[in-house]
């Protein structure tokens, strides 16, 4: 029997095909826990406000707790219904008879589903935040251990300036620290109780939404019921933040894929995280990082899907919103999966310090330092930039790195080059010369590492 039908809606008749098409039970049975929790809180409110007699409330409560324990044992079979909310009520009715019908007093599935989703997002976001805190610690520690490893940095995927590997890890850390802040924002957006607004306009019964708010641990009530039943902003924020976390993870992944290739040769994957080829016996593939990048597509798809679902809906509840389910439910496991695998994989990317250093020594990436040295002698930057460009060209013609340029060669370009200026051509000293805030210079990197630890601490305290 389909519970949510009356004579007015055509009686108990419903084509099985229509039920199959409209049902969300296959997805939202994942929200059973949340649904039972919400029902228990709602029931308590109804009982305390004497809307439901105490004895009946006790009986329903025992019924709900029985469902809960069967759920925990994996022994709860739900009847075919439109969704998890109706399935729970139908099962309760099967067991308790008519008194089960008291539970839905002053409640609609519209506020019920909004509650279940907020409870779900709140829990998942908290777990993602904990994962981000652990990742921040890992990156800070990894950075700490690689302060003296120098390697090229890239703009346009062309060698740019020497950096420390610590600085690179701290850069990923800075991205994930922003994600942690954004997850905290998601938690604050989610932290409003939707339950009790009913289908759209509230109720004439003497309910008290504050009771359920307190029981379910929300810090405020949603403001307006008409908005509440059609509001998925908290879910959009959640999906956006998850997608943005994936963007960051994906960029890190691309670096790891590149750096572990023979073309770069900066790092090697430990055998525990490398995959092979079914045909080519020599392969050592970075599938883990490629899949982080690949799953980013799913995360973005979930966000775009929900945006498209909500766009153009009229105010109030619309059944289209049921299509939010897959995107929302998929996102937690997707993000948590990526966070866990990053924590396993990152320590197993072993950088080859000698190859990294050789890449710096054999190139011209300290050219900007050389220009800065001329600037210190009073030469305008644009002129210094041109002079160093010419010197680089001369080195290229001779097939030598910039660090091997002699004073004689430099003087051929301009007499203002001298031994003191050419000291800035030492590529390995380039990192140590950086002094600006946020730079790869050692004292800035030290501060960045400390900040990552602080952000991890803040994330853990949320
Ligand atoms: N299954 C619906 C959903 O998930 C529940 C709300 C249905 N409300 C209604 N008035 N038909 O969105």
**What percent of the residues sit in helical stretches (DSSP H or I)?**
55-70%
Order of SSEs: HHHHHHEEHEHEHHEHHEHHHHHHH
Distinct ligands, ions and cofactors found in the model: arginine
> Shape, please?
elongated
Which secondary structure elements does this structure contain, and how are they paired or packed?
Layout: H1 16-22, H2 25-28, H3 32-48, H4 54-72, H5 84-96, H6 109-145, E1 150-155, E2 158-164, H7 165-190, E3 192-193, H8 209-216, E4 220-221, H9 225-228, H10 233-259, E5 267-269, H11 287-310, H12 324-345, E6 349-351, H13 353-361, H14 367-376, H15 381-398, H16 407-413, H17 419-422, H18 430-433, H19 442-461
Parallel strand pairs: 3-4
Antiparallel strand pairs: 1-2, 5-6
Helix pairs in contact: 3-4, 3-6, 3-8, 4-5, 6-7, 6-12, 6-19, 7-10, 7-19, 10-11, 10-12, 11-12, 14-15
The chain binds arginine.
Q: Describe it for me?
A:
- This protein has helices at residues 16-22, 25-28, 32-48, 54-72, 84-96, 109-145, 165-190, 209-216, 225-228, 233-259, 287-310, 324-345, 353-361, 367-376, 381-398, 407-413, 419-422, 430-433, 442-461; strands at 150-155, 158-164, 192-193, 220-221, 267-269, 349-351.
- By secondary structure, the chain is mainly α.
- The strands form three sheets. The chain has a two-stranded antiparallel sheet with strand order 1-2. A two-stranded parallel sheet has the order 3-4. A two-stranded antiparallel sheet has the order 5-6.
- It is elongated, with a radius of gyration of 30 Å.
- It starts with 15 loop residues before the first helix and ends with a helix.
- Bound molecules: arginine (ARG).
- Arginine (ARG) is lined by residues 24, 28, 82-83, 109-110, 113, 317, 319, 321-322.
